[in-house]
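FAQ
Q: What does a multi-component entry look like?
A: The components come first, one per line:
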Amino acid sequence: MKTFVKDIYKTDEKYLEKEIILEGWVRNIRALKNFGFIELNDGTFFKGIQIVYSDELSNFAEIEKLHLSSSLRVKGILKPTPQGKQPFEIQATDIEVEGLSSSDYPLQKKKHTMEYLRTIAHLRPRSNTFSAVFRVRSIASYAIHKFFQERDFVYVNPPIITSSDAEGAGEMFRVSTLDYKKPPLDNEGSIDYKEDFFGKETFLTVSGQLEAEAYALSFKNIYTFGPTFRAENSNTSRHAAEFWMMEPEIAFADLKDNMNLAEKMMKYVISYVMDEAKEEMEFFNKFIDKDLLSRLENIVNSEFERITYTEAVEILKKSNKKFNYPVEWGIDLQTEHERYITEEVFKKPVFVTDYPKDIKAFYMRENDDNKTVAAMDLLVPGVGEIIGGSQREERLELLEQKIIDNGMNPEDYWWYLELRKYGGTKHAGFGLGFERLIMYITGMTNIRDVIPFPRTVNWAEF
Amino acid sequence: MKTFVKDIYKTDEKYLEKEIILEGWVRNIRALKNFGFIELNDGTFFKGIQIVYSDELSNFAEIEKLHLSSSLRVKGILKPTPQGKQPFEIQATDIEVEGLSSSDYPLQKKKHTMEYLRTIAHLRPRSNTFSAVFRVRSIASYAIHKFFQERDFVYVNPPIITSSDAEGAGEMFRVSTLDYKKPPLDNEGSIDYKEDFFGKETFLTVSGQLEAEAYALSFKNIYTFGPTFRAENSNTSRHAAEFWMMEPEIAFADLKDNMNLAEKMMKYVISYVMDEAKEEMEFFNKFIDKDLLSRLENIVNSEFERITYTEAVEILKKSNKKFNYPVEWGIDLQTEHERYITEEVFKKPVFVTDYPKDIKAFYMRENDDNKTVAAMDLLVPGVGEIIGGSQREERLELLEQKIIDNGMNPEDYWWYLELRKYGGTKHAGFGLGFERLIMYITGMTNIRDVIPFPRTVNWAEF
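Then the predicted structure of the entire assembly, as tokens:
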């Protein structure tokens, strides 16, 4: 019977001493005199399975010369191997070669640099590290959907192509079908975007939050999960031009509800991945980051701390620690500050709330002190900030003034303002950069290594 | 206790005669002399719940003047109403107004045209039709993830920004950060894309299939589900510039496996939505399309027919039916042909396979007759084509020749070709336009009405 390697590992009793058929790729091959071993990986499971073949096979000569990554159809008996490293192996009765490989296969059995592996992004998921990373990425995506859907949140797809800048921060990619060589001009000699595909200037979205708010004010609890873009010229290990973001938005909810949701979600997703990708997580803990599992267990089991920005600043000032960026009330916290608070002071995840309004976005709700806004950042050990969110300004006049104060035009936000005019209510939400979460869960340190085909400054290969 | 309208409908015994708190929006209000009725919708459920209020409330005067869509916090007792249209109502003991609305609220209780509702896309999910559409969209998204994840398919996010044209069909949006007014030129006076953000010309993806194949040849079974783009100047009810596509790709699999997967998936997703969105589906069946539920049940319960293109052409020729596009072997089937086959001949979904190679994409596997390729389209009553797929050409030399014959440069496809060089295997996959599926499931006839904020020619509002 045709089966998957995963099924054999999960319920081997069912298959022991039976004839089974497996289809997969040669991860390793060792040819001895009259027999040999193949480690076959079929992609369904982190581990492969050992195939024993002998010169009783009619195509023995072909088999023993196979190159890595050849694809095979193996028929054989699953045998227990009580003395072996693995609990079973397959004694092949027939091996059919589906597709040959070649001696110049770029993913040989040796240590490759991460940089090199990025140049073979079409093959790297065949390595242990990247098969683990991208299976975890898939499982974590599903955990996010599962968490929200089981709580009746409505999944919303905000537009990717947009004419508004949700963050008011610039750094957007232009989307256009105009001819760059001869763009149409208007009477004043400016580019005439009325002639462009959408009849106006358009960009790739940096966040679906504003549209998400419209849906939260219809469905109460919603979430988005999709690609977002930043045309930021940052060549760092933590910035990509294209990344996935998850943004829940909840109505009739304040900052406390928002933190409760973020805490529950983080714990759920991490637990789910630890349960569903045990082999992959053990691999990361062994080869990528020896503290990984204990750090993640700490997150799942601890009650997240909650402090205000003002308290955080006091802690930092009292610390007598020398920071590169000196601490004063009003500054934006830097990674060194965030990591000190979460790693050295509390040794667990910490929500920092109520930031100075001048360093936060226009849509955040102003507190009664007129100095701070109902913002929250979640800081976690090993990374610093992983989630950013806020209660949104629901008071029409205040929001309108904020837009004006930020040098934006209220007319561009007419529909966003209308959400406050027609049955507005307190509401809140947050954003989680999905790749940052995957880096956190896997211990991988470069964002390029948790995206199948990353896009960064000067890099859009494949 | 604070609760959701959904919970009350699902387990009303738990709440009857109890004091509960609900938060939601006024969908309807009827003020009589000393009392009145409010239909409160909290977004968690298609139906609202009736609130009875009386002049015993201290803010009775405020309540009876509320405009549609005001947001409220209602405290009251859930009472059974054996004579009523609904099984229960809430006798309010306290109503707190969270957010007022206004007499110019644009979504008044009257019939609006779909065109008008598109101009208030931020408010239309508060209407019955669109709350149903977008909840179904969310549930169907989840059904797709659930179907594949429960079968251990790995979810892959192929890049949105790309330098290759997967379909070889053109009509792509350019993505750039160059200054349109003064683009950098190279020595020959052409735009110097080396100066652009990615150091090369880039576009929005039309399909993640090629990248998906790389992952299927690592993980065996994978799927993608994300936004794709077409800069097509088609102002029809079925074309959007931005839409979501779902593309599974399976290795060690042929066209028959591909059809089996598509059939199972379609049945699963439709059944799941019919189970999980009963109220919404009844609404569509009553107000949008009276044949909807019977058509969907027919899909779930029938075994899909499978015929070849050549057989389809024979059937069409023998039909004596007058088509706008005359039928000859070699033509691409038009919607009128597809609908005749699925609606009038078989009266159920039909896979048509093995199309002439000249009308299909370069990557489809050539059949032994040298005339056709192992392609499949799924035709369904009421729509025509809803899924397109194929077995992929896994033979290196043949694929390379096909690329050349199509006027493309094999060097641009070096990594795609390498997938055939290093342990290639037969593999197959298909694409499902998610919005077309939602139109099919809901009976909505315009793609603009199943996308929260649609993007079409000359339209990128919100």
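Q: Is there any commentary attached?
A: Sometimes. For this entry: Chain A touches chain B through 105 residues (CB under 8 Å).
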